[in-house]
Specification:
Radius of gyration: 57 Å
Mean pLDDT: 78
Distance between the termini: 92 Å
Number of helices: 8
Strand content: 15-25%
Oligomer: single chain
């Protein structure tokens, strides 16, 4: 009898353990909803990890009047060092008829055997209607203008602000790439006039102006003296502008005859007296000094070599820029154009949706 009792006791324990090895539980998020509202049913199955679990699958209705909207992805969790598996499946349901619905147990297949969950109930309410004032009803509301929020327009404002600098950069790089094309330049060169021709032109100008007849004696002799000094500088190669009259005469005596220089000496002496001693020369002295200057230039001018090669009047310069620079500028231009087009499209779309 003792052995039989022990055998019955352990058999009962094993039966309870086996019966409790699989548990199925269903839980609803809300027992009461309004017509059209949604709620969820969570089905939880706990079983040994080595057993295959098959959750129930529904088409479009759970029961008559209760529609199935969505079946979420199952969520699994392992317990007891991977020996137990807890599988959860959520079903989203709704109803469009007010009533109290009985939701029968949900069947789950575990290891080839079928297990049932606990039953559920769902109460669906209709919207309250004012039966005492059936003549009072409200029509559809007007379209509401969305509230203006600055944060929704930050990107639009940034695109508008950056548009003009990018457009300027586009113009700048287009101009650069155009400048980087091979350039052919023609430089015109004015032929250099001989020293005596420049001096004769300046003396002719002084002669025509006749400043001494207007009482401008000092200005007349200053211009006359400077014209001869500039000629000596170009013709003989020493800086006569920074030298005194005596130093110029002494320097010229080393290279030219004394007769021509003697007349030039009288010109410098008269010029110094007019500028520093306020001398007023006679009319014939003014003309004589001008003629002395002309004579000195003509007698000391340099005769050009007839066999000398003429200087060019035009020089052609061809400038070539590297291909790498053109490719870099071209890539920058394409990038800026794409950014500008995207900015214009984005701003235009946002404004269209806002005012539509």
């Amino acid at each position: 009898m003792k052995r039989i009792f022990i055998l019955i006791f352990f058999s009962t324990i094993f039966a309870q353990v086996f019966a409790q090895s699989v548990t199925v539980n269903a839980q609803i998020d809300s027992l009461q909803i309004l017509i059209g509202e949604q709620t969820g049913i969570t089905l939880e199955v706990s079983a040994d990890a080595d057993k295959h679990i098959k959750m129930p699958v529904y088409s479009d209705t759970l029961v008559s009047g209760v529609e199935l909207i969505e079946i979420a992805q199952p969520d699994s969790e392992y317990l007891n060092d991977g020996k137990r598996l807890v599988l959860k499946q959520k079903y989203i349901i709704t109803s469009f008829d007010s009533a109290l619905y009985y939701l029968p147990p949900m069947e789950v297949e575990v290891g080839g055997e079928v297990y049932q969950s606990n039953p559920l109930a769902l109460k669906v309410y209709s919207f309250p209607v004012d039966t005492l004032h059936p003549d009072q009803f409200f029509g559809p509301k007007d379209v509401l203008t969305p509230r203006f929020v600055w944060s929704d327009w930050y990107l639009v404002i940034a695109c508008i602000v950056l548009f003009f600098p990018l457009a300027f950069l586009l113009y700048y790089f287009i101009k650069r790439i155009r400048d980087n094309q091979p350039i052919i330049r023609k430089v015109k060169v004015e032929p250099k006039l001989p020293a005596h021709e420049l001096a004769l032109k300046e003396l002719e100008r002084i002669k025509n102006e006749k400043a001494w007849q207007k009482g401008l004696q000092k200005e007349y002799y200053t211009e006359l003296s400077d014209a001869i000094r500039n000629y000596i500088n170009r013709r003989f190669g020493f800086n006569a502008m920074e030298m005194t009259s005596t130093e110029i005469i002494d320097k010229l005596l080393e290279v030219k005859d004394e007769k021509a220089i003697e007349e030039l000496k009288g010109l410098f002496q008269t010029s110094d007296l007019v500028k520093f001693a306020k001398l007023v020369p006679l009319m014939n002295e003014n003309d004589a000094n001008l003629l002395s200057a002309l004579k000195f230039v003509n007698e000391t001018k340099e005769i050009p070599d007839p066999n000398a090669k003429p200087e060019p009047t035009e020089i052609t310069i061809i400038e070539k820029r590297p291909l790498r620079t053109k490719l870099i500028l071209g890539g920058i231009i394409v990038l800026i154009v794409v950014v500008l087009l995207l900015a214009v499209i984005y701003v235009g779309r946002e404004l269209y949706y806002y005012y539509a």
